[in-house]
């Protein structure tokens, strides 16, 4: 079981109460008791008083489904540990969400005022994490649920003895050592950051868990395939210091890099060799992909190369329009699959007739056209000369009387 108690800043009452009742990504949401109206009043009152927190948000995530009696016992234990007044208004909702492995997980959201309703005294959240764990260990032992090792086992043991539960304290001490402080695979903030970037840390954790169940010989291959499939990267191993036990996977931009060894549990002395082996396999996989892509690209290039083979009986055409398809001018020709222009022969003949007079054409036009209407003289080596001359002719006919312009094209 995991319990997390946090203070909600004044003014955020509408947001947090709506969140507790919103379905969003959950499969099902159920309001067990209470309503938001009294909580919103408490939040507004706290804001008028200038307090930091208006409400408290308590998340209850049991390792197994709770019966109604067990849920009531859990809320009672939280009230007892923090000294909450049971007469304070509260709201309790159930959320059911689907895990990465397809199973359904239940968790609860308990909302209550951050101050006692009658006296107005603010509840203290000092050592709230340790108190949360003390409640969890006590309930796990009392309800017969699976024990979850936390970072504050020693505090939980002390609280059990203070409450007169020496037998439970002895069982806890026997189960876990004081120095047993596990670390989560990822934090809640990291999880939310990944969700905002459309990346699923729970799914990655689930896949890593499946890899951890494989044999030592199969794990590098499986991890390399996972990283390759997801488009991730694997960092080089650190050989000295605390970082030598980390297997760092580079996640997409905007998401914190993930330490896969929190799940894989590879010994620190073997991490460097494990990482090296995994990177070798990863490089081989990506080399194979590159070769396949190169082969496909080469085939496409051959398909587009329509020039005849040296021994082909088909002679290449002398037509400059056809030669344009093979000219080394980027973007200068039309697509190879485009149909030929039916006016090309006429345009070609007109261009041949006009080439000797191209320069005179520009000078004669300057007399009657403004500077904005004058185009630069065509470049006779331009592979697009035909197209450019056709455009110039059309533009001239749009602006001038052809009967006046045409005589000027004739030599004196």
Let me know the number of strands: 8
Low-confidence stretches: 298-338, 402-412
Distance between the termini: 103 Å
Strand content: 5-15%
Radius of gyration: 38 Å
Question: What does the average pLDDT come to?
Answer: 77
Helix/strand order, N-terminal first: EHEHEHEEHHHHHHEEEHHHHHHH
Secondary-structure content class: alpha+beta
**What is the strand arrangement across the widest sheet?**
1-3-5-4-2
Query: Helical stretch count?
Result: 16
Give the helix level as a range of percent.
40-55%
Describe this structure in words.
- Strands 1-3-5-4-2 form a five-stranded antiparallel β-sheet, with helices on both faces. Strands 6-7-8 form a three-stranded antiparallel β-sheet.
- The chain has 16 helices and eight strands.
- The protein is elongated.
- Helix 3 runs antiparallel to helix 4 and helix 13 packs across helix 15.
- The longest helix has 37 residues, at 268-304.
- The N and C termini lie far apart (103 Å).
- The chain has 412 residues and is α+β, with helices and mostly antiparallel strands.
- Helix content is 47%, strand content 12%.
Features:
five-stranded antiparallel sheet, 412 residues, 16 helices, 47% helix, disordered C terminus, alpha+beta, elongated, three-stranded antiparallel sheet
